[in-house]
Amino acid sequence: MHVISCLVKLFRSLPVCILLLSALTVDSQTFEPRDTTSVEAMFAKAREFAYNNRKAESREICRQILLHDRNYHDASVLIGRTYAWDNKYDSARFVLSKIIETKIGYYDAVDALIDVEFWSDNYPAAIKYADMGLTYHPNDDNFRYKKARVLNSSGDSKKASEILNQILAANPGNKDAAGLLLSIRKSNMVNKLTINYWIDAFENDDPWNFGSIAIGRKTPSLGTVTLRYNFARRFGNDGHQLEIDAYPALTKGVYMYFSTAFSNKKNFPYSRFSIEPYFKLPASFELSAGFRYLNFDDNRIVTFDSSKVVIYTGSVGKYWGNYWFSLRPYLTPGKDKWSKSLSLTVRYYLSDADSYLSLILGTGISPDEQKYAIISDYYLKSKKIALEYRKKIASRFLLDCRSGFAREEIRAGTMRNRYSFDLGFSILF
Description:
By secondary structure, the protein is an alpha+beta fold.
């Protein structure tokens, strides 16, 4: 009986024990510290995926982290950035904006929002978020630099330069600020003065001497416009020519080359006109097609009889790494047949777009060279090779050197050697 009595008492107290045990279990779960080790490991994996083009997988891991801890803002920032890297800017804005609604001024979220708006060309919004970042993080170089970058892209290079100078005054070693300031100064140098001299030497003839001086300016509507004076001394005559050319952009990926020139009727055509549109194609290709019109009539600016020469030309260009390849033919109709010439340029870019080494190979006459502009008979046979070196010096000066050799036919069955030496100097301002 005693045993039975004890069992009855135990049975009656069982619900209370179960309730106490449950309470203790819930309490221990409620106050158990978060397992930061596993979350950090998950986030490290998400970052690894994000930077290895596995962005969708990265976002999924970040969502799992947020289910565990919705205040783990770095995971939300990473989701927003990966959306931006996929050009899903609206999704990126939605995720990142939610962060700064709950945690105003959160550094990484504001930083990411600046990039999102900058990449999507929404410059006013990018400046707004840069100002927000500076409100909560005054004098932060990163936010100041990004504001300057946005201002420069939006056309306010003056204010951008002021901010960059402030950064460099406090931190002269800031490479990003120094690089952007240098780029702005270069882009503000829209004028270029160029002086060229070149000489062609022959075995049994007097040399040909040429010179030019040109002033060019970058313009918003006409591209680079250049006014050039050309001089040529040969055949016992001094020739003078005034030339102007421009490269206006017609639409995205399409621009035009225009050129016109007039002379004193010695050593140059009396008038010259050129038109050639250029088309930028996928895979870094470029295609052009146009013509050159040369008028040798001393009394008329334009003529359509035998005094004129029309040359049809074009080009196929390709950028490949630091190399640029260009193939250009010239076709000139004649009475009995068309004359043909071909020029191949292989250019290797050095430290920047204004410093390069070029190899030029060609057959026939290249009428774009001013030294041949007086020659109306394009049936002459010629083979040529030339090397050209251009170097930018101190970001403001350009030095051009070129040397070439040609074996050319001057009359039927008569060949001669031609040695060319060119030197040019430009200053940007």
